[in-house]
Design a protein that fits this description.
Strands 7-6-17-18-19-16-20 form a seven-stranded mixed beta sheet. It has a six-stranded mixed beta sheet with strand order 9-3-2-15-22-21. The protein folds into four domains: 208 residues, FAD/NAD(P)-binding domain, CATH 3.50.50.60; 131 residues, 2-Layer Sandwich (D-Amino Acid Oxidase, Chain A, domain 2), CATH 3.30.9.90; 28 residues, no CATH class; 110 residues, 2-Layer Sandwich (Alpha-Beta Plaits). Strand 10 and strand 11 form a beta hairpin. Helix 1 packs parallel to helix 3, helix 1 runs parallel beside helix 7 and helix 7 runs antiparallel to helix 8. The chain is 25% helix and 24% strand. With 540 residues, it is α+β, with helices and mostly antiparallel strands. The two termini are 41 Å apart. Bound molecules: flavin-adenine dinucleotide. The site of flavin-adenine dinucleotide has 44 residues, from helix 1, strand 3, strand 4, helix 4 and strand 16.
Length: 540
């Protein structure tokens, strides 16, 4: 097949805070030397900027203040300053406000933002700076010459479920570029291709949490705008990493959510169900009574910290933001780090273009920046919780006293899926929360509230290497955890003609959280982008 060919100077994949910051900073650096930015391409698989952006989100302003100092006063962004913060300790049926808010959860000086709005706001500036933004275009495949990355191929449009071209078929474009920046967010599909092609890894494997979130409108005056609460404990079992949040937005709305570590020993762990349970706590029930759920979303976030960051620069490529793992898991914050890493990448690219530096300067810039200053002291934080909440808190305390070291220079980590125990070693799965469609919702109803839409007649984008494993071995060994960990009911076990359980897929429900790619115990599921433009339509 003949594919359209394009040439670019720089291609950035992903228009989240990292990719947008990289594009904007680079365009401005070039403009200061009277160099054009129209040969920078920014690709985003969502149908509109911001539509695949999901976050809490309480933003540390440090990154954005360097990129766009006037952000705090720009009504178009609508950033709300945090007015108070607290930690709520939860047990079944009880909740108590912690007498102290641990320093990592202090949020004074931070702002509550809607990440999708931030992406649109930054996107307008990126476009004005002359960068070419292509929405509804997914980077589908990397183009290598040996170990040298030479560009990428975008997704084909108009291929039917049967793999045959339809009347609207348009082949993907081969974009050749000397510099490709991967800003795909957590568990990027091209990032995974790059790391596996080049055999790249961090010192520790990356581990993830899944955040399940709803936006509610509450009766007026119920929860103040600017209040930030984090919760610890119930409904998460003591062996499970995670916690909840309640952030007071404008217009009597709140962002509520639960982060669940994707490293549970129990294959029946269902982060969506845990979030529904969370809302049935008497404290949450009182908060949400008389309110209305408006929006839903779910997305993963990397938690492995400094030791899990793979090489971030090489021959023709850079990796920035969540795709590299720049997240402070202790503070649950990554937006400012994504922005800063994008800016530092832009400086290295600028140096390469002008002949004053090289792409490979980027890791050194990271190491000399406040990204390392912030992440190094928490390098062992998440790993300290491998034995559960209580040992985790003890490790965290010790690490704070020893500049992040704790008991070991580097705490080891294990990929989350490897921690899963066979069902034979566990008791029966706990009962699930019944959806009442007022306080609690099933996955399909929640997916509806994420605005998710895909072209139905397209090839399945969840590539399963061997469904016999799903329908046989996995039934016996792990009880098909995909039906539990997926927050969008993409994976279902149905009764086959022979009465045996059969995997049934609903790919059009997919909210692009990537949990299946991360958590499948046999690592036989590969998430690839569906036809560009499909997916959720996040607005908050
Ligand atoms: C539930 C949740 C709550 C969070 N809360 C907070 C918080 O309160 N404060 C905070 O600071 N951080 C928070 N974070 C983390 C923060 O959202 C991330 O660190 C930040 O968004 C990372 O930015 P990024 O640009 O690297 O990636 P992303 O924001 O994930 O953006 C990546 C973009 O790339 C696009 N993309 C991916 N693959 C392709 C492809 N192949 N082709 C084209 N486009 C592609 C995606 O559609 C997406 O738009 C939270 C994260 C989650 C999941």
């Amino acid at each position: 097949m003949t594919r359209p060919q394009l040439e670019a100077e720089v291609v950035i994949v992903g228009a989240g805070p990292a990719g947008l910051a990289c594009a904007l900073h680079l365009a401005r650096l070039l403009a200061a030397r009277q160099l054009p930015a129209d040969n920078i391409f920014l690709l985003e698989k969502a149908r509109a900027l911001g539509a695949h952006q999901l976050s809490g989100a309480v933003m540390d302003p440090r990154g954005l203040a360097e990129l766009e100092p006037e952000f705090a006063t720009d009504a178009a962004l609508g950033a709300v300053p945090v007015s108070e913060d607290a930690l709520l300790l939860m047990a079944a049926g009880r909740a108590a406000r912690s007498p102290i808010t641990p320093p990592p959860l202090h949020n004074h000086g931070n702002s509550i933002v809607a990440l999708s709005r931030l992406a649109q706001w930054l996107g307008a500036k990126v476009e004005a700076a002359g960068v070419n933004i292509f929405t509804a275009v997914a980077g589908r495949e990397l183009l290598f010459e040996g170990a040298h990355l030479t560009g990428l191929r975008t997704d084909d449009k108009g291929i039917g479920r049967d793999g045959q071209p339809k009347s609207n078929f348009e082949p993907g474009t081969d974009i050749r570029a000397p510099i490709v920046v991967l800003a795909e967010g957590p568990r990027g599909s091209l990032t995974r291709e790059l790391t596996s092609h080049l055999g790249l890894r961090g010192e520790n494997p990356q581990v993830y949490s899944l955040g399940v979130k709803e936006i509610w409108e509450l009766p007026a005056g119920r929860f103040p705008t600017g209040r930030v609460l984090h919760t610890l404990g119930w409904p998460l079992a003591p062996h499970l990493y995670g916690g909840g949040w309640i952030y007071g937005l404008d217009h009597n709305q709140v962002s509520i959510g639960l982060m669940t570590g994707l490293e549970s020993i129990d294959p029946a762990t269902d982060p969506h169900d845990l979030f529904q349970q969370f809302k049935t706590h008497p404290w949450m029930r009182r908060l949400l009574a008389g309110g209305e759920m408006l929006k839903f979303g779910a997305k993963t976030t990397p938690m492995g910290g400094w030791h899990a960051i793979p090489p971030t620069a090489g021959d023709g490529w850079l990796v920035i933001g969540d795709a590299a793992g720049f997240v402070n898991s202790q503070r649950l914050k990554g937006i400012h780090l994504a922005i800063k890493s994008g800016m530092l990448a832009a400086e290295s690219i600028f140096g390469t273009i002008t002949g004053e530096g090289r792409l490979q300067d980027y890791p050194d810039r990271i190491a000399a920046s406040w990204i390392r200053e912030e992440l190094w002291p928490v390098r062992n934080f998440h790993q300290g919780f491998a034995g559960g909440l209580v040992p985790g808190l003890m490790h965290a305390g010790l690490q704070m006293l020893t500049g992040g070291r704790g008991l070991h220079a580097r705490y080891q980590a294990q990929p989350g899926h490897e921690r899963m125990l066979p069902i034979a070693q566990l008791g029966p799965a706990p009962p699930r929360t019944a959806a009442d469609n007022v306080l609690t919702f099933d996955k399909v109803t929640d997916v509806f509230h994420s605005g998710t839409r895909h072209e139905e007649d397209q090839p399945n984008h969840l590539l399963i290497a061997d469904t016999d494993i799903c329908n046989g071995r996995c039934v016996r060994e792990f009880g098909n955890p995909c039906q539990f960990f997926c927050p969008a009911q993409v994976y279902e076990m149905v009764c086959g003609d022979d009465g045996a359980p059969r995997l049934h897929l609903n790919p059009s429900n997919c909210v692009h959280c990537k949990t299946c790619d991360i958590m499948d115990p046999y690592q036989i599921i590969t998430w690839v982008p569906p036809e560009g433009g499909g997916g959720p339509n996040y607005t908050g």
